[in-house]
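Person: Please work through this fold.
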Amino acid sequence: MEKDVGLRIRVQRELREQFVAACRAEDKPAAQVIREFMRSYVSDQKRSQVVADSTNKNTMGSHGNKEI
């Protein structure tokens, strides 16, 4: 996958140092770990949205067409 944009964030120095050290311990570039996290986060959000949409449809379907 082609990488064509950057993302700049500000974090506490201690957090950055701990993150970089953890990445080095795993022999992974920090950018790769961040990309993996971003993909995982997006995927989780999509799954959560599908579940929420499904729940909303089921709730509306059980009450939406009944006469009172």
Q: What stands out?
A: The radius of gyration is 21 Å. The helical segments are 13-25, 30-63.
